[in-house]
């Protein structure tokens, strides 16, 4: 038995050569690979009835029992193959266990996809006798391939992230590596087993040795479809913002109507709170807030049919709100230390104290424009100042919410008058009032409309690329 590992798992996919890898693992003395032990449709192999005396129904009832049996009852070192669509209940325990050796087998996804299509067409999933080889040309389906590729990439990303955060490493094997006796023996050494192979398994034969373009009936269409794929994710909007958790204490529930508001900072929170009060004819202090995750679950359980919502604001308007209330203002809730840093270290043309009578419209526009330039660098992780929730991207704030619960509805600020009353009617309110528009923030010496121009819009678009893209915001003007 290895002093590093008690068992192993081969993370692979269909048509990646996993049968051949398994055959060579099983050829090592003291190593047993139990096939696709957690395939939801069979146990180990299509015609097998059990693994180590554990049947498929018993595995379904308690998959961890089979994991333990493979580790403890297999003579020598036991393992199995695991694909992205196998029993998800065992994936996290596998990833967390440092005594389980992780072998990651990959193949060019176009080749594995075409091979999978051929096997589907011919019904031949293994080949041991070349004279019985079945041949076929298949049609490349671009949309189907993109879905196939997305699944593979998502699974590989999950594996990589799990190994990174737990400080583990895997043994990576490419499809072409399977033909190298040296690599297979290197794998045996990494596993910590003393046995070595003298030759590779000769039973299984490669089924489709031709170039990919010869295996498909529409090679031209395949090439055009592949050129549409952004292989290196060049069009992705980079995201360097820190992850944000759900700000549950800030959530607000109506006094009687089963509605929960999940605010995003620097949004129309005051207007929404006033509307929640008007729903049930109560004062603001009657609203329910200061939730913990436990008390929010209790609130939800006590109100079957409840609904939750958040309101997103145009990024430029939201940045102006954050600038005026948190940076420009020197009143309660303002960020004095950040304001001082922005003035001294980042060169923002902010007044020494609160804006006075001599603070002009032109000064306000210049200071806000400089703040937008700062936001672009700040959200990209290029400044020493924290990314505060009052100006973090709304897309990131929603991702943080999703760690606990997602809102039923995402409402745009300019559409609150339509959607908020409709939402209240869905939970039984007979005649909900319309929400009032958000009033001008007291800390704002000038309205955004007074300074708006195309260059400010462009600065906001550069800072908040994700929000403009994800939510489809157009120009505010």
UniProtKB/TrEMBL annotation:
It comes from the Bacteria. InterPro entries: P-loop_NTPase (IPR027417), Sulfotransferase (IPR005331). Pfam families: Sulfotransfer_2 (PF03567). This is Nodulation protein NodH. It comes from Alloyangia pacifica. One of its GO terms (molecular function) is sulfotransferase activity. One of its GO terms (cellular component) is membrane.
